[in-house]
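note to self: dont lose this again. the chain is below, predicted strucutre after it. 380 aa total, dont forget to put it in the shared folder this time
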Amino acid sequence: MSEANKRNARQFVGAGLSRDGLMPFVSRDKPAPTPELTKVSKIIIAACCLSFALAVCSCRQSPTTVYLKGDAMGTFYTVQYWSKKAHEPQRLDTAVKEILNEFENQLSNWRSDSWVSRFNAAPANTPIHLPEHAFEVVSLSLQLAERTNGAFDPTLSPLIQLWGFGTESKERIPEKSSIRAALQKVGYHKLVLDRDQRVLVKTDPNLQLNCSAVAKGYAVDLVAQELKERSIAGMLINIGGEVYAAGTKSDGSSWTVGIQENLPNGQTLRSNRTFPLHDQALATSGHSQRVFFRNGQRYSHILDAKTGHPVEAPVASASVVAPNCALADGLATIALIIDGDSMKQLASEYDGIEYFYTPWNASRSDTGSHSISYRNQPTS
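---
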């Protein structure tokens, strides 16, 4: 310790002693306390101690954020939540796994015994009953297909497999004749949904249903519904990058998420911007995760139902904020397929929609990264 610091230390200690060194906590230039002052001091000290004890007690009773994570649907999931009501994390994690497993049993194209695989193997013109999750996902998929005049199409499986983005995962550039043949097997209008009876019929035996464009988002909504039924108000759910947030964090602040930024060469950067979510979902669709290159040309998994080819990639990704994650998931895919005017028109048909595009290498872009292209507030 330096001499100056020693002097300061002595001055501080000295200020807490009486002139004769026997009366503690009394400055040498101040008189000793009278009995009345001593009594008041004791009352103040007692009040401060009580306030401190209450503060400590309050801190101990504040809810703790619980973090769950695992693998499902060929990707990861995380669940963060807090609740004033006691919940057993292990039981909740088991419930989440059961929900996601049941969803996959209905709509996973990677499970040969799933409902969607059985539907794809069924003969044409045969009414097939839809279980609950399949009905909701198919209904939304067909609604989006109709509102985009087929730009969004849940029957692209033949093309998805042809390009190597499906269950075979053998990426390749198909022959033009193969693409034309696959296009003959595609068409959402070949699906007939009876919403009252909850049955689905395909009029073409070669038709293959694939609802992966909204599947993860819907699964997020299922987990959120389960947590809400358990009286959990504060939550942040993430399945493979599709997110839903409800309530706030335990400290009252907003849940925030960031959008991953991508370089044209496939490398990724950590986002330098976050977005608060208030009882909202956010989904992002992009050209960097499922992609391959041939002769310097990028081929992504976002396919154009009209041409049978991957769409062009002038931007890295599109993100959509919506009241539920299934809708956000579907709209994020559509935003990369249709033109800007058509996307604005489609977004205007739903309440509470925001969407924006992330340029390649947004952190260095001069065009303004993550700019909101459209915002449609919910109607009151």
